[in-house]
Amino acid sequence: MQFILDPSIADKIRKMKERVRWQDPLIVKQQIDQTRFVLDDGTADSPEFSFLVVGDSGSGRHWGYNPQRQLAKLMVANRDNCRFLLHTGDVVYLVGSREYYQDNFIKPYQEFLVGGEDPKSIAYDQMIFNLPILPVPGNHDYYDLPIVFGLMAKAAWPLRKLLRSQIDLDIGWRGSHQGRTYAKAFLDYLQGFQNKEELVRHLDRHYTGETDTGRCLRYQPGRYTRLPNRYYTFRYGGIDFFALDSNTFNAPLPIPATPEGEAFRRLQEKRREELDLEKLRILEISDTLNPNNPGEAEQLDDLETQLEQIEEMTLDINKQLASNRETVIDIEQLDWLRQRLIESWNTKEVRGRILYFHHPPYVTETTKWDQAQTLAVRHHLRQALDGVAEAVGSLAEDRGIVDLVLCGHAHCLEYLRTVDTGHADSHLHWIICGGSGYSLRRQRSEGPNLMEPFGLSANASTHLVAKSQFFIGRHGHGSKKRRPYSFLRINVRDGRPPKFQVQPFIGERFQGQWSDRYMEPFLI
User: Fold this and answer.
1) Three-state SS for 325?
2) Which residues, at least 6 apart from 317, have a Cβ–Cβ distance to it below 8 Å?
3) Domain boundaries along the sequence of the chain
4) Distance CA 57, CA 411 (A)
5) What are the pLDDT digits (tens) for 498-517?
């Protein structure tokens, strides 16, 4: 049995539309753009500003330390002149259950919240930010539980007894309810209004932003800090930011009904069997270890990380094998991205563009590059960007279609540059910021160059598509193991095109002690 369940893409789209009352006649009548907001902080026209980036931050349970809180204190010390914080997804772990928001989000980020001096008094669905925190949903923010696990957890049965293991996964009994908890925490949850009059009053009060695409939500730090949708855009300092929900266009591409495709399917089924056996081996070993012994606790931590990776790989294989049955892709969102990027290129006051979403199309973390979800996100993003490039033509000149792409999902900090991929995602800057609290991952043994295969065959030829410039993640073993958790500060410079000074911040856990590591900023 799987520990976690991922709702279908169709369910994610339908449920999230219901929660924001997508295209409700009252909203359409008032010509409201439900994918846009204005950040009302009084400085949105300044061409020079800074912002923070975190991802995969919900630290869950660690053996006596909280990396998320350690980084939050470092962020507070370096937030001067930062206008907002972008979150690349996975706010809490292991499933997006509401009981984890207090320890996984509210307490760690208390300085960013109104009333944060008393974090216990803040409900997860009543948060107001004094520094805007602007997330996108990650896969864990959508995850639910098999009903048997939820019932057992609700009845306070220790999950480790179920597993006969010392490993205690971070599983709450409620699950995310297909992303409802995330929506109630961060989105303008219009489904909660019971009658027409209440909704009209709310729209008149909070949808007062004026843009070229209609009225929109006004985001007011310290007063009203809700987002209009699971994907959205905003403009700040002449930069257009596009936040995407990659959970709804990451379905693996169908396996072709050819001899080569069938061979690939059998290979994946065999791989799944091997992973199931490896999972049992890990659980058996963990049952012999004592978490109160520092050395064995370190070993348990490694085993838990391996088990999480196996669950992730198994889920990806299951999605591949089911891909011929579920082929739903969020075409509406991808068309929206394409059209809004084209409009952005045709708007004179816009001087740059940043995308951020959860699943990275390019990454060298040990488990992600070969996942079918990675391929799917890369494929669909390429299609969207290719459409933009065709439409804007010479407007882009020698620039990339976007200036910077920020992602999470891989538990590391990595900076990559694409080469000529044959698509409009060529020669772009990609930063993976997913090492901000949860269990860190290692870089794959194949190294920094990413080679893309042609076709599904194991013998298919490959070509270079991207190069990793640096990778910061878990490394070393035993007493030499280092855990460098990370976040970014990005300073936007004046000019056209803009320049971005990227400053990584590292809080490293080594031999039971914390230290802050300094990295030289780099310019892109």
Assistant:
1) coil
2) 268, 271, 272, 275, 372
3) 9-253+322-523, 266-319
4) 9
5) 999 999 999 999 988 899 98
* pLDDT at res. 165: 46
Residue 516's DSSP bridge partners are 507
- The most distant pair of C-alpha atoms in the chain lies apart, rounded to whole Å, by 65
pLDDT in tens, 176-222: 899 999 999 999 999 999 899 999 999 999 999 999 999 999 999 99
Question: pTM of the entire structure?
Answer: 0.91
Predicted confidence (pLDDT) per residue in 60-104, tens digit: 665 567 899 999 999 999 999 999 999 999 999 888 899 889 999
* CA distances, 251 to each of 254, 304, 317, 330 (Å): 9, 26, 11, 10
Write the pLDDT tens digit of every residue in 454-486: 655 556 688 999 999 999 999 888 778 899 999
Within 318-428, strands assigned E span 352-356, 404-407, 413-418
Q: Distance (Å, rounded) from C-alpha 99 to C-alpha 55?
A: 20
Give the residues across from 462 on adjacent strands: 453
Angle (CA) 265 266 270, round 5°:
120
| Structure tokens that stand for 96 in this block | 């997006």
Whether the CB-CB separation of 10 and 17 falls below 8 Å is answered with no
Q: Are 84 and 133 in contact (CB under 8 A)?
A: yes
Least Cα distance to 169 among 2, 36, 22, 47 occurs for 2
- Whole-angstrom distance, CA of residue 296 vs CA of residue 293: 5
Cis preceding-peptide flag for 283 (omega within 30 of 0): no
Distance CA 188, CA 34 (A): 10
- Phi first, then psi: give them for residue 388, nearest 5 degrees: -65, -45
**Which CATH superfamily is 9-253+322-523 part of?**
Metallo-dependent phosphatases (3.60.21.10)
Report the candidate in 335, 334, 523, 333 with the shortest Cα–Cα distance to residue 429: 523
HEC letters along 434-503: CCCCCCCCCECCCCCEEEEECCCCCCCCEEEEEEEEEEECCECCHHHCEEEEEEEEEEECCCCCCCEEEE
The residue written with tokens 């020669």 in the block is 427
pLDDT tens string 308-356: 888 888 888 888 888 766 578 999 999 999 999 999 999 999 999 999 9
Tell me the backbone φ, ψ of residue 309, rounded to 5 degrees. Answer: -65, -40
Q: Check if the beta carbon of residue 243 is closer than 8 Å to that of residue 228.
A: no
